[in-house]
């Protein structure tokens, strides 16, 4: 109401163990955004404000819409103590800025349960093609040092995936610098890898880090030509969809590469060739046949550029060879 707030809602005692992992879940809603009602979620070993020494999260009313829309929250944690634990909700705000609105905070569907102890994600993943241009990829990564809630780990398995398919299971332990050489590459191209770290209880629910290689295998020799009909060659072209609205990008079909303008989208898209062997100091010539077709809403100029880069990403295209308006 019309006063400063410093109020607590504290759960009943909950039996907790410092060697286990738990998941706290609840929903929260606010009645209006006119006046702020920020609150903290905390953990303590007694039903007092002074005992609530572990802050699980600080939640701002800016996260909420009005009209009592419910938002779900979930937190995994391990307590620092064994015994009775208490979850506290602490609302601490100054007097209402607008006295003619009374904001209210509501908590729903409170639950806490024990969850399996699983490892954190692998970190610092790299995937590098072999220097000799053979069909090999060298992976390096670090195994986690703790579980998702900070507990020590024992034996682990690192499962390596290439393009979404498992290719190897490596026995490992916590806190190791691991490496793996993938010698089962099916052919030239680009490949995406990730590593799932597991223990006897399973793996983290979080999305693992993914990395895509530079071109694996022997680059194309110059002279190079493409009629966009050779399936293997077409697969080595890269489409980068940087559009304001995803899904409107270059397509390759029927012997051509094409991008279609729409009146609802701003474009910033790339079509990037396969890698080609080039040497500094030599002169190269680029030829391309193209055409533009238009309709009633093509009122604006379209910028068309030809770029040169050392990789198949938008960021790698650093040298402008041609710029024109269509």
The shape, in one word, is flat
Please provide the count of β strands.
22
List the total number of helices. Answer: 1
**What is the quaternary state of this protein?**
single chain
The run of helices and strands is EEEEEEEEEEEEEEEEHEEEEEE
The percentage of residues in β strands lies in 35-45%
Provide the gyration radius in Å: 28 Å
- The computed structural class is mainly beta
- State the helical fraction: under 10%
What is the terminal-to-terminal distance?
A: 62 Å
The unreliable regions are none
The biggest sheet amounts to: 5 strands, antiparallel
State mean pLDDT (0 to 100 scale).
Answer: 89
Short précis:
The chain is an all-beta fold and 326 residues long. The chain has one helix and 22 strands.
Q: Would you write up a description of this structure?
A:
The chain has 326 residues and is mainly β. The protein has one helix and 22 strands. It has one helix at residues 231-234, and strands spanning 7-10, 14-16, 21-30, 39-44, 54-59, 71-77, 83-91, 105-115, 123-129, 137-142, 156-162, 165-172, 177-182, 192-199, 202-203, 210-212, 238-240, 251-253, 256-258, 270-272, 303-309, 317-325. Strands 1, 2, 4, 5 and 7 form a five-stranded antiparallel sheet that branches. Strands 11, 12, 14, 15 and 16 form a five-stranded antiparallel sheet that branches. Strands 6-3-8 form a three-stranded antiparallel sheet, with no helix packed on it. A hairpin with a 2-residue loop joins strand 14 and strand 15.
């Amino acid at each position: 109401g019309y006063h400063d707030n410093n109020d607590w809602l504290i759960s009943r005692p909950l039996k907790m163990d410092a060697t286990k992992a738990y998941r706290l879940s609840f929903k929260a809603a606010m009645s209006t955004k006119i006046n702020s009602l920020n609150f903290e979620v905390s953990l303590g070993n007694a039903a007092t404000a002074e005992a609530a020494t572990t802050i699980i999260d600080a939640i701002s009313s800016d996260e909420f819409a009005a009209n009592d829309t419910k938002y779900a929250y979930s937190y995994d944690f391990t307590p620092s103590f064994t015994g009775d634990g208490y979850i506290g909700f602490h609302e601490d705000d100054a007097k209402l800025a607008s006295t003619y609105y009374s904001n209210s905070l509501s908590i729903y569907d409170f639950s806490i349960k024990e969850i399996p102890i699983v490892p954190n994600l692998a970190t610092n993943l790299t995937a590098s093609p072999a220097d000799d241009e053979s069909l090999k990829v060298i992976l390096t990564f670090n195994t986690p040092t703790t579980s998702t809630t900070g507990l020590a780990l024992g034996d682990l398995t690192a499962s390596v995936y290439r393009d979404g398919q498992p290719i190897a299971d490596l026995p490992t332990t916590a806190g190791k610098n691991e490496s793996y050489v993938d010698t089962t590459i099916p052919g030239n191209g680009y490949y995406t890898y990730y590593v799932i770290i597991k223990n006897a209880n399973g793996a983290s629910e979080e999305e693992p880090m993914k990395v895509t290689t530079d071109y694996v295998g022997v680059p194309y020799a110059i002279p190079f030509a493409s009629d966009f009909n050779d399936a293997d060659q077409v697969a080595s072209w890269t489409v980068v969809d940087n559009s304001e609205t995803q899904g409107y990008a270059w397509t390759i079909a029927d012997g051509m590469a094409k991008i279609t303008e729409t009146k609802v989208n701003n474009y910033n898209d790339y079509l990037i060739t396969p890698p080609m062997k080039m040497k500094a100091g030599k002169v190269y010539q680029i030829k391309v046949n193209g055409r533009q077709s238009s309709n009633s809403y093509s009122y604006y100029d379209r910028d068309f550029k030809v770029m040169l880069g050392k990789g198949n990403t938008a960021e790698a295209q650093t040298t402008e060879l041609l710029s024109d308006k269509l």
